[in-house]
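Our collaborator T.R. sent over the components below with a one-line note: 'Predict the complex.' Nothing else. No constraints on interfaces, no templates requested, no preferences about which chain binds where. So this is a plain run: every listed entity goes in together, and whatever single assembly comes back becomes the starting point for the next discussion.
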Amino acid sequence: MDKKTKELYKAKADVLKALGHPTRLWMAEQLSEGERCVCEFVKEIDADFSTVSKHLNILKQAGIVEDEKRGLNVYYKLKVPCILNSMSCVEAVLSAKLKSQIDMAK
Amino acid sequence: MDKKTKELYKAKADVLKALGHPTRLWMAEQLSEGERCVCEFVKEIDADFSTVSKHLNILKQAGIVEDEKRGLNVYYKLKVPCILNSMSCVEAVLSAKLKSQIDMAK
DNA sequence: AAACTATTTGGCTATTATACCAAATACGAC
DNA sequence: GTCGTATTTGGTATAATAGCCAAATAGTTT
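Returned assembly:
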């Protein structure tokens, strides 16, 4: 595999990796309903302000969300909304997995 | 956020996390063209046999691929092929990101 | 300008992930 | 059964990630 290909797969994997964390995935899904400010996320998750901020930054670096400061608050929104289209298939993976486990137990 | 919801997002994130590694993503995409045995992957990537095997195991644990032993070889194939549908959007994220970077540089 | 609020950054530690090597296992050929 | 090949497993060193705290920054209010 050549260097260019490696870099491309690294870049693509980084996008998926950014979504590969429960908190970040949840936040991304929340954003599909519209923009949120950091404080709204902090209220709903039991986590430190700095933790939430860092997670949002990872999503931003990945190119999934963008932020805008208005007054004291920073609002985040999805930059490329299609990123959540894949979730129905992720759920299909989970059902298939659950099914296998049930079959296994029989 | 309640415990059930947390567990669901953990499960969904784990699927995405499994694809969030260059080597694993590449292998998954290869499998979209048909099954492959471990040795075929090893030939194409510059990595140890055990490394490849472990990556495939992570994809298997995530429920993305399944394996079948035939003779000396173990063949892997996609269990839920739709999982690669999202790749066009991942590429859209990358183009959008690239575009931002170019605008930024102006 | 001082006080207050929202957010980010830096530092630290604990946990997890990655990759290699060596050893173990599974299977087929002889 | 012994040998050779394909794959997995265990061990270990290194690197990356996550989450908390404290400090820094940015904007608002008074």
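Summary for T.R.: The helical segments of chain B are 3-19, 22-31, 38-44, 49-61, 87-105.
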